[in-house]
Amino acid sequence: MFSIALIILGVLGIGIGFYNAPSTVEEAMEMVSSDDQGDGHGGETSHESTSKEEHSAGAHATEESHKASQVHEKADAHASEHNEVSIDTHATDAHADEAAHGEDHDTAHAEHVFHQLQNRPWSAVYVALLFFLGISLLVLVFYAIQRVAQAGWSIVLFRVMEAITANLVPTSIIMLVFIVLTAMHSNHLFTWMGEGVFDKTSENFDPIVYGKRGWLNVPWWVIRSVFYLLVWNAYRMLIRRNSIKEDTINDGYKLYKKNYNMSVVFLFLFMITESMSVWDWIMGLDPHWFSTLFGWYVLATLLVSAITVIAFVTIYLRSKGYLPKVNDSHIHDLAKFMFGFSVFWTYLWFAQFMLIWYADIPEETTYFVLRFTEYKTLFLSMLVMNFVFPILLLINSDFKSRPWFVVIGGIVILAGHYIDLFIMIMPGTVGGSWSFGIPEIGATFFFLGIFIYTVFSAFAKADPIPKGNPFLHESEHFHYFNIEHHSEEDNQH
Q: H-type helices in 360-402, by residue range?
C-alpha cells in the first residue's frame, strides 16, 4: 500500500511538472521574469549576458567602421552638406542593423530558455530514472563480484541482492520508452539531436559534434542503448533462476560453477557497457566536453549508493525477522564497503576535477564553470555529504555495527549521490533554469514506489536462505570468526 501510494503521488507530481511547463516562448519568458524577481533561478546566465554584450560591442564596431568608410568616400566627391547627410543616413542603417541583430539574439535566447524550461520535467524524470536504474544495476554487479570472488561472508545476503536487482526490469522498460521518445524528438535533452546540427548549410551546424557523427547519431545511439539493457537483464534473469535452482537440485556444485562462469562473463561485458552507456546517456548531454575518467566516476557514485541500499534493505528485513542468519558482522562489512567506496568516489572526483582545473583548457573547464556558478550550493554540499560526513561517521569500527548509525550515514550518502547525478544531468539540459520542486520530488517518489513494490515482491517469492550455496555455512558463522572471536582473544589477553 505504501509503494502504491508513492507511485500515485509520483505520477501526480510528474504530471504537474509537465502541466506547468511552458507551451510557448512568450509563456517561458514570463516565467523567467517571475523567477528573476524571486530567487534568481531561470534568468540568463553569465555566459548569455556576456554573449549579448559581445554582440552589442560588435554592432557598435561595425557602425563606426561604416561611418569612417562613408566619410572617406564622400570627402573627395561631394560637398560637406551631402557628406553629413550620407553619414547620418548610414548611421541610421547601422543602428537598424544593430537593432535587428539584437532582436535575432533575443529571439534565439528566448527559444533556448523555452527549451530549457520544457526540459525540466523530462530532466527530473531522467535523473530519478538513472539513479534507480543505476542502483539496481550496481547491486547486480556487486552480487556478481561476490560470486566471482567466491566470498563467504555475503551468502546470507544473496536473496536480498537478488530481490533488489528485480527493480532492473521495470526501470529498464521505462528507460527503453524514454530512449524511444527522445529519439523521436519528444524532448530537447540531447542538443546533438537538434535540427541542422550535422548539416553544414544550416545555421545550427556544429563542427565539433559533426566530428563525432560516427558515434553520435540516433540509430546507433538507440541500438547501443537497447544492447546495454538486454545484456544486463539477460544476466539478471539467468542468475536469479539458477540461484533458486541451486537449492532444489542434488548436484548444486555443478550449477554453482556454471553461475560462477556466467558471472565472470557478465562482469567483463559490464565494464564495457557501463562506460559506453555513461558516454551515451550522461556525457552525451554535454557533447562538446569529454572525460576519460567519467565512466569510472559514475561507477563509483552508483556503487556507493547500491551498497547503501543493500544495507538498508538488509537492516529492515532483519528487523522484521526475515533474515535470522544475518548478524552485526554482516552489517559491519556492508558499512565498511560504504566507507571504502566513499573514499574511492572522492579520489575519482578529485582526480578529474584537479586535472581539468590545473590544465585550464577552455573546452574542459567549461564543464565545471557552469556547475560552480549556477549550482554552487549543491556542488559544494555534495562534497560534504559524499565524503566528509561518511568519513566522520563510519571511520569508527564500532559505529559500523550499529544499524541506526549505518542508516543515518546511508541517508546522507544516498542524498549526496542523488545530488551528484542531478549536477551531472541538469546543467546540460536546463542550464541556469533549474530548481528543485514538485517534478523532482514526484519523480523520486514514483521510482521509489516501484522499487519498494518490486524488491519486496521478489524477496517474498524465494527462500531467504540460499541453502544450495557451498559457502553458506561460512556465512552463517561469520560472526564468530570476526568480531566475537577477536573480542574473546582481547579479553584473554
A: 362-374, 376-383, 389-394
pLDDT at position 85: 39
What DSSP assignment string belongs to 391-434? HHHHSSTTGGG-HHHHHHHHHHHHHHHHHHHHHHHHHHHTTT--
| CB environment 388-418: b (16+ within 10 A), e (fewer) | ebbeebbeeeebbbebebbeebbebbbebbb
Q: Indicate the DSSP class of residue 28.
A: H
Contacts of 116 (CB under 8 A, 6+ apart): 429, 430, 431, 432, 433
**pLDDT reported for residue 268:** 96
pLDDT digits (tens, 9 = 90+) for 323-335: 988 988 899 899 9
Name the pTM for this structure: 0.82
Residues lower than pLDDT 50 in the chain: 40-92, 94-96, 98-101, 480-493
DSSP string, 261-322: HHHHHHHHHHHHHHHHHHHHHTGGGSTT---TTHHHHHHHHHHHHHHHHHHHHHHHHHHTTS
